[in-house]
Amino acid sequence: MNEIKASERAATPLSLHVPEPAVRPGSKPDFSQVAIPRAGSVRRPDVTVGAHEIHDLAWSIVRVLNRQGEAVGPWAEALDPAFLKAGLRAMMKTRAYDARMMMAQRQGKTSFYMQCTGEEAVACAFETALEKGDMNFPTYRQQGLLIAQDWPLVDMMNQVFSNEADRLKGRQLPVMYTSREAGFFSISGNLATQYIQAVGWAMASAIRGDTRVAAAWIGDGSTAESDFHAALVFASVYRPPVILNIVNNQWAISTSQLIAGGENATFAARAHGYGIPSLRVDGNDYLAVHAAAKWAVERARRNLGATLIEWVTYRAGAHSTSDDPSKYRPREESAAWPLGDPIERLKAHLITIGEWSAERQTQLQAEIDDEVLAAAREAEQHGTLHNGPKPSTSTIFEGVYKDMPRHLREQRQEMGI
Amino acid sequence: MNEIKASERAATPLSLHVPEPAVRPGSKPDFSQVAIPRAGSVRRPDVTVGAHEIHDLAWSIVRVLNRQGEAVGPWAEALDPAFLKAGLRAMMKTRAYDARMMMAQRQGKTSFYMQCTGEEAVACAFETALEKGDMNFPTYRQQGLLIAQDWPLVDMMNQVFSNEADRLKGRQLPVMYTSREAGFFSISGNLATQYIQAVGWAMASAIRGDTRVAAAWIGDGSTAESDFHAALVFASVYRPPVILNIVNNQWAISTSQLIAGGENATFAARAHGYGIPSLRVDGNDYLAVHAAAKWAVERARRNLGATLIEWVTYRAGAHSTSDDPSKYRPREESAAWPLGDPIERLKAHLITIGEWSAERQTQLQAEIDDEVLAAAREAEQHGTLHNGPKPSTSTIFEGVYKDMPRHLREQRQEMGI
Amino acid sequence: MPQMTMIEAIRDALDVMMTRDDRVVVFGEDVGYFGGVFRCTEGLQRRHGKSRCFDTPISETGIIGVAVGMGAYGLRPVAEIQFADYMYPGYDQIVSEAARLRYRSAGDFYAPIVVRMPTGGGIFGGQTHSQSPEALFTHVAGLKTVIPSNPHDAKGLLIAAIEDDDPVIFLEPKRLYNGPFNGHPDQPVVPWSRHPLSETPDGHYTIPLGTAAIRREGAAVTVLAYGTMVHVAEAAVEEAGVDAEIIDLRTLVPLDTDAIERSVSKTGRCVILHEATRTSGFGAELSAQVQERCFHHLEAPIQRITGWDTPYPHAQEWDYFPGPARVVRALAAVMED
Amino acid sequence: MPQMTMIEAIRDALDVMMTRDDRVVVFGEDVGYFGGVFRCTEGLQRRHGKSRCFDTPISETGIIGVAVGMGAYGLRPVAEIQFADYMYPGYDQIVSEAARLRYRSAGDFYAPIVVRMPTGGGIFGGQTHSQSPEALFTHVAGLKTVIPSNPHDAKGLLIAAIEDDDPVIFLEPKRLYNGPFNGHPDQPVVPWSRHPLSETPDGHYTIPLGTAAIRREGAAVTVLAYGTMVHVAEAAVEEAGVDAEIIDLRTLVPLDTDAIERSVSKTGRCVILHEATRTSGFGAELSAQVQERCFHHLEAPIQRITGWDTPYPHAQEWDYFPGPARVVRALAAVMED
Ligand SMILES: Cc1ncc(C[n+]2csc(CCOP(=O)(O)OP(=O)(O)O)c2C)c(N)n1
Ligand SMILES: Cc1ncc(C[n+]2csc(CCOP(=O)(O)OP(=O)(O)O)c2C)c(N)n1
Ligand SMILES: [Mg+2]
Ligand SMILES: [Mg+2]
């Protein structure tokens, strides 16, 4: 019989620890517990380094851009200004795209949307470290991977609108893009499943003697899922060419990263128990992201195995169009985030190095807004969720299997089509 | 289309790393890669220590008994010789019980058996650190937890024989014991599931302001399972009174601990990424097990949260009666194991401190053999799997639910009983 | 009697039980401070404290696993899985552990847990916010499976589930949370307050698990339904103008076979509805049982109207959802035979 | 033609495919060096190398997860789950990922994987080495589910499964590995060499998924079975002396409904056998379909003979296993009606 018996020992009673964020709505944002090392202060080991030799890096933050907008320290590289401007453009376009799609959702043009506002540097800069043929296994917050490679916005919007031009035929929830061509694996609505799949893909690349690498993506909250652990175990054992990205944007819907275990260790430190080298990196610093991503991709490409990277960033917007963050965190928290805004920081750097100006920024913004608007207009021609042309009904029976089996043909008939 | 494309890059091809044990059947055992620190050389921190302050302990091995049979170092305590003799007896009884049940299986008295030979110290000494009311969540290799508390062998044998006196009514595979009274949770055939349940039980104890603690058990191979990770995440977040035991006996059926990730990190180090304090302990050293277990139980009892302990030991026997280890490891590997045999080591210690002799050992062995034989005879009176009295057939419909629903009553009828 | 939405009724059931029995604890993803993505646990942490109602890490195996451990300790955990579509990572703990613990330990331990999960489609949730996995539970010996179709039942069934000593899967049709839904997405949204079964008694009451409810008496054909499909059945029967008897099963295991047998023996015809994919859906079990129990009364083949054997598509939601039009056709067909 | 046991036939199928197609890789717990706890992969690592056949960590979600990733890359992974009872931790990867990848990506990616797992009881394996979870796969759109009953079929079906571009669950009745088994545990063990279907052609051949085999023609009653129960059916029909037609389904999804319809239309009676628990077992789907497709031919209620709705007990294995005696009774009952 399950039964609660009073203990016979006269000891102090135990109690349950339930972690709580420093502040809740109504209080002033407080990030005083977030230790931010100086930009440039963290060493850059050689890519052949052993996991054990860089445990300290998991408890720090690799940063390149300082408050003055300068690129400093061992992770700073000489980068072509054109490359940086392309990065700025990619991030701004991502933000503008998000804004437009959020609006489209409010206008009833689609059912749902998820923005990555505040986190643009992570995906946009990471993508620059990959080559054609490499494969990302993204979550729903890595639209930047597509936009950074100039994947057509119209194609993305068609998916969001589930219209007749949607390559996914209206089957998927908005933002759950797929593009083999763009090295962008099909997004699953089920968290974390892609993490171990990325490891499998990378194992396959190694089995075939290929040179392509995989990048796995996961959020801080989702690291609690089983497939996160499976991925680290398999990556530890087989040393496949994979980059294990954790985007720590501090929140998982309404729960802070404390509820995923962030109170007692960093997410980068998770790698230590598996003997996987790991880095913790300023995710709002385009240059730091680019440098760390290149380091990890090089390790993978040189058959040195997996690298885990925690990108420290902040989810500036709502979790999705279904949620209102002011219910669980102060409205001003986003503005108080100590690592700042990735677009502002890269812009400041470009200005500091004399390659940019407030005017050019305004001009670029206008250009991008036009581009996004034009794309939206074009996509809307193909229909939106409740208006205009749609994917045909009969397609719902297609592609469940390669060839339609009899029972599905019968059901299609039953439907009367 | 899934399709393998030749990469466009001219880079060195990748390859898959598949770890392989140092030796396979036909070669000489080789444990030269197993680093064994001197007994007494590892410090004993205060139980209030932070997880980060003892990371080094996860990469070492806490040992108390040295080669001369002396108890040395900070983990050595003044222990009553009677306590040590009880420990010796428990371990010898466990081994004798295993031997008898292995024989019974070969004689067809049961379908299956699993021994813990070579690992007796882990469960037997751990149990001495617990109090009545605490709860173990064991695997199939912790029979020592029952035997160390003098749980009746006959009761255990009844379960193994699935006979009429089997409290589990013949429902469970042999060795899958249950005893709430003995603080021994129902063993599952599914690996690792108990690990997170132990955390839940400990959370419940904390929620209730109780003082009881839980002990979770898992094998090295099973740490790869999902519930291992879930347990560490929940233990990290809620800091419940639980001891997370990993019994690293070097093997998981035919695969060495390398296939669970043991090549690149210790299992004790897994705790670091969750901010959980951990120890790595000589599991064949009765005194070290007792001392480390007490340390961890005290932490739990004082509301300091979870401790993870990797017990380093060796599975001297076959995985189960279904397997033949000489197919995948040298026959002599067990004898070459550098941490020796737990019974021999405790015996040597008792002799060294002048509390024991070869004669008393022989005498005790005879006593135990008699006791085990007598128990077996008694249990066999109640039947064995294919002979004698059995649990009644109709019980198979009972206990699926608290009250038998109509469909099961109908099925019982259909069976004609 | 107070009128409640489904959400309010569920929340009230939890509140009543947390107040009455301090062994009841409630947890899940976003369940604590925030009160759940569907707000079913709103206010419970404030009222009952952080150790009785709390947020969990995003690990469904962890959520069910700790529930089993807590249940074995002696608590009565009510765990929320954010969407039924996300229960799969916790399925092992449900099937191999919660469902079999009592049996394998011969009653020494058991798992008096409730696992709540929003189920079904109709909210444009796409393939991972729309599934109806009830058959994956009904196949598992040791589990009970409950699906309410209205606030009154939701509260009474949930209290019964919490008091039950066996593990109960409690599926909440999310399309019904805020109002009844008859399968006509084009018609104006109706609030629960216009539905008689929003009348929900104060305080403690139970609806015994394993009892179906007859929503409409009739002599011509029996319609077996549960959850959202009960409302679709009502609309379709109205539209078809058939004298159908509509049975709301409420509990799938244990099943009220008496009610089913009585009705089909009378009508001789049977239509079975569910939203889940057809093959091996719970409708198959119902069909098999009706056939076994009422063979000699049957005057026409039993019809199953179900979701198609495809994932739940996003844009074509209403082509997938088994709406009144399909049910009307099935009623006509079964009456013709 | 060489005679093989089921184990040899499976091993041979893997060997043939690994030799023919270098995209085929084989892995699972104890599958590499040791060759699998049932020895189905013995010698494959030696012959095809460590990167084509290897041991995995004990993580079923990991095993299926990497298989999906490898499949998406372009390999054709054949993963082994040590016992079907242990597939639950990998169920999410099967249901949410492998099964839906092609659909949700509109064909951009798919998962041409095979997941092999020993299934069924009869070896005193207790509740976690005896389960028959096929219905948990047949309910999931996007999966194919195969269960061979003899070496000849096992090889041909496994090769077809590996060549199939959809995810295939390949259930291997472990009680048949070393010999046919007719459900009489008291009778002497029979080796495969005495069974005609142990004749297994050399090299490559396939048996198309979705085609049933008629094991015995008959006019009086149709018996639908698969896996071990095919042999039980044969024994029972013999003992009952009924002119039954025995259909070995071989593939549950896609199902050979033609063969079923043809047979039941002829016999007018139907008995369905499986080892899995009854409620929501695959027998329910078969019963529903037979009823839907052959209603007007049916002369007696369709009977289901199945495992009981309890966990699989250890000592009472033969009380649980649906043996010939129960089938004989069912045949008698269905003929009487
Ligand atoms: C298996 C599963 N469980 C739960 C959910 C519901 N869910 C969707 S997003 C989310 C939060 C994820 O947080 P995080 O991983 O930190 O990613 P972020 O949204 O911050 O990018 C949850 C709980 C889900 N989609 N899948
Ligand atoms: C979920 C699950 N997967 C696989 C198995 C099969 N299995 C039983 S024991 C075992 C090896 C476990 O090794 P380890 O955890 O090291 O424990 P040990 O046997 O060494 O004590 C395996 C793979 C299982 N019982 N459950
Ligand atoms: Mg997050
Ligand atoms: Mg082991």
Output mean pLDDT of chain C.
98
The greatest interface between two protein chains, and residues involved on each side, is: A-B, 65 and 64 residues
Succession of helices and strands of chain C: HEHEHEHHEHEHEEEHEEHEHEHH
What are the low-pLDDT stretches of chain C, counting only 5+ consecutive residues below 50? Answer: none
Q: How many E-type strands of chain C? A: 12
Average residue-wise pLDDT of chain A: 96
Shape of chain A: globular
Order of strands in the sheet with most strands of chain C: 2-1-3-4-6-5-10
Describe this structure in words.
- The complex is a heterotetramer, with 2 copies of chain A (417 residues) and 2 copies of chain C (337 residues).
- Chain A is globular and about 65 Å long.
- Chain A contains 11 helices and 7 strands.
- Residues 1-8 of chain A have low confidence and may be disordered.
- By secondary structure, chain A is α/β, with parallel strands linked by helices.
- In chain A, helix 4 (153-161) packs across helix 10.
- Chain A has a 5-stranded parallel sheet, sandwiched between helices. A two-stranded antiparallel sheet of chain A has the order 4-5.
- Chain A has one domain (54-386): Rossmann fold, CATH 3.40.50.970.
- Chain C is α/β, with parallel strands linked by helices and 337 residues long.
- Chain C folds into 2 domains: 6-198, 3-Layer(aba) Sandwich (Rossmann fold); 213-335, Rossmann fold.
- Helices cover 35% and strands 17% of the residues of chain C.
- Chain C is built from 12 helices and 12 strands.
- The chains are: A alpha/beta (417), C alpha/beta (337).
- The complex binds thiamine diphosphate (2 copies) and magnesium ion (2 copies).
